[in-house]
Description:
By secondary structure, the protein is mainly beta. Helix content is 0%, strand content 54%.
Amino acid sequence: MGRKFGWHSGVAITKGVKSDSKVIPNKIWIPANQLSLQTSGTAATAGQVDDLYCLLFDASSTEDCNYGLVLPNWPTNTLKVRAYIYWSSANTSANKAAVWDIDYGAFAEGEDIDMSSPTNVTVTDTDDTTANALNVTPALEMTASPGELLVMHIYRDADETADTLTVDAALRGILVEIEEA
């Protein structure tokens, strides 16, 4: 396993390694209110559940949000980027799951920021049977290079047959972890 690291982007960061007298964090917390909503009709709905801002993703249609960040420069060719989606729902039934996807692209200086053919990562996560209990998805793993702009299009794939959750999924935030590949 490689050295872990991260950067500061104006949101909470945790745990780091020391390199050349600088502490380089390896995790970043992106709260739901930092995610950009689409201007089209597919955007998730902003809401509040249990005094915490969230994005509500409908059970009957695919809704989305976006986030972009610049990856840190580091003396390695490839980075492993893992995203963990923190979410909840009002569900109290057993064996209900939500399917979460991230379409992403990583772009270097001079490259066209074209998301028409993104790379997709997906995960199915089973909801807890306690209403509004916190769920954390398994890692959605992406690859990129240091210094690239990582553009993420995050959505609940409600049309996927494995998505059996019949209520809104409340996205609370995303934890991003970066490490050398």
